[in-house]
Recover the amino acids of this structure.
C-alpha cells in the first residue's frame, strides 16, 4: 500500500547490550546534552512507536521507564538483541537503532516509515556498506533470525541477503547523522 507505516505498527528497539570495550565504559550511559545516549535515543523514537524497549540488560537501564529485555539467547550480539525484541513485541514491525547513534534525526526515521512497499527489512546503504542502522524489520523474519542465531550466524548484514529488502542510499548531506560512536575521539567530536 502507499500508506506510511503507523507508529501503532512499530515497536522501537535500542540495542544496548554491547560491552563497549573500545570505548572504555558503557557507551549507552555516556552523557549527551541533558541526558545520556540511551535515554536520548529512547525519547527520540517514542513518537514514532507504540512502545520502546531496550535490548541488552544492565541494571542501570531500569531507571529508563521502558522494558529492558534480557537476551533470549545470551551472547549473540546485535542479532540476538533483534531476536529478543521480535520475540517480545506485539507489533508487526520493529525499528532498530543502536545506542551509539545519537544524531539520528526525525527526518531519517520518517523516511524509513514512508518507503516500505512490502519489504521485510528496510535499511540504509552508504557507498559499498549495505545495511547501516537504523533498520525497520518485519516480525515475519522471526523464524529465520531465530534459526540463524541458534546456528551462531550472527552477522546482521545477512538479513539483506535473504531478499525482500529495501536499502535507502544515504544522501550526502545526512551522512554525518549516521555516525557511530566507537571511541572517545568520536565521542568528543560529536560533543564539540
Amino acid at each position: 500500500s502507499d500508506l506510511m507505516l503507523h507508529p501503532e505498527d512499530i515497536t522501537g528497539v535500542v540495542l544496548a547490550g554491547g560491552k563497549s570495550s573500545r570505548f572504555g565504559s558503557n557507551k549507552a550511559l555516556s552523557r549527551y546534552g541533558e541526558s545520556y545516549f540511551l535515554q536520548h535515543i529512547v525519547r527520540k523514537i517514542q513518537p514514532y512507536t507504540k512502545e520502546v524497549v531496550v535490548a541488552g540488560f544492565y541494571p542501570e537501564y531500569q531507571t529508563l521507564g521502558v522494558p529492558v529485555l534480557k537476551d533470549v539467547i545470551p551472547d549473540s550480539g546485535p542479532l540476538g538483541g533483534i531476536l529478543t525484541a521480535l520475540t517480545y513485541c506485539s507489533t508487526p514491525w520493529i525499528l532498530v537503532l543502536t545506542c551509539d547513534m545519537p544524531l539520528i534525526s526525525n527526518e531519517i526515521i520518517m523516511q524509513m516509515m514512508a518507503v516500505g512497499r512490502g519489504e521485510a527489512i528496510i535499511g540504509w546503504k552508504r557507498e559499498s556498506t549495505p545495511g547501516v542502522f537504523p533498520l525497520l524489520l518485519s516480525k515475519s523474519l522471526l523464524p529465520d533470525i531465530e534459526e540463524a542465531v541458534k546456528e551462531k550466524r550472527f552477522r546482521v548484514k545477512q538479513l539483506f541477503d535473504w531478499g525482500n529488502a529495501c536499502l535507502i542510499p544515504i544522501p550526502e548531506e545526512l551522512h554525518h547523522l549516521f555516525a557511530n560512536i566507537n571511541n572517545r575521539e568520536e565521542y568528543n567530536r560529536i560533543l564539540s
Summary: The CA atoms of residues 28 and 99 lie 5 Å apart.
